Amino acid sequence: MKSFRCACGNSLYFENSHCLECGRPVGMLPDTRQLTGFDVGGDDYWRVPIAGAETRTAYRPCQNYTQHQVCNWLVHADDPNPYCISCRLTRVIPNLDQPENIQRWYRIEAAKRRLLFTLDGLNLPIVGRDIDPERGLVFELLEGSSSSDEFADTLDCDPPVYTGHAGGVITINIAEADDSSRERMREKMGEAYRTMLGHFRHESGHYYWDRLIAGSPWQAEFRELFGDERVDYNVALAQHHQWGAPADWPTRWISAYASMHPWEDWAETWAHYLHIVDTLETASHMHVQHNLNQPVCLERNPQQNIPEFQSLIKEWDWLSRSLNALNRSLGMPDAYPFTPSRQVLEKLQFIDRLVKADR
Ligand SMILES: [Zn+2]
Ligand SMILES: [Zn+2]
Ligand SMILES: [Zn+2]
Q1: From the CA of 85, which ligand is nearest?
Q2: Residue 158: pLDDT above 80?
């Protein structure tokens, strides 16, 4: 994530909705990838406060910003859609009659905006249902009711709500937005890491497998590295729940779950590629850089803006160890509790080539 500044010079976080220094409302312009403080005119439109700017484009906040404070992105004044490009991809929102759901919704949308911002920075196609009604990207934020399935990768509810992907539809079980529920699930599944952002990154991997790998010239090499995805998914799932991951999984996969099926291996490894490039970009912007001689910068030109793979991974090895040591000093668990093996690095390099390929 790059760093942002208000017009007053104060630094801003991606999630901010107003500047604590000058009090301006803060918003993101998704088209120019700028987050800053705005001046609100007498016409209620928001404009970037630049002295002497000849044409100051008018924006308005997303309807989920003004009505529910769960968004901080802006929309062009002449766009007829009241929602920003992130919110318009959510077709089912949580039931707001339940007061606790607004906070859950906020956390989910904030993580989703981070995902979308990174995907856009990597110049990956984000095609919604309006363009592709069959397999365009869309999100459903669902809630289950009571307790059930012991072994499913779902939080307790009946019928179970699975966080997952099918044909462009990414479903999120909104209980994942509760720290206690998610942590309970993390322990039950024996995972080292479970976050809302991690879920979004993982599920986006399934979406991009369909878009970029299936039936493409990349598919043969995919099968060499990740295995043949034509093996029966439900059989693989049942076997994984019965037997768990092979004992040598750390040498072959990034996580135990990745050993379940080539599609899950792909989605897990994809999520890690996004973890790595986004965190390295944040570090570059914070001037925390060790071996690289160029900053990592996801500004829609990954070929130019992401260093070659070996340097990237060398930097990540240093940065992730540093992060873990810093976290331990604060009494926190490791930020990146993973050690990518040589085989995992080969898979990550495949993703790196795919992301940097001409499209
Ligand atoms: Zn300010
Ligand atoms: Zn929005
Ligand atoms: Zn998955």
Answers
A1: 2
A2: no
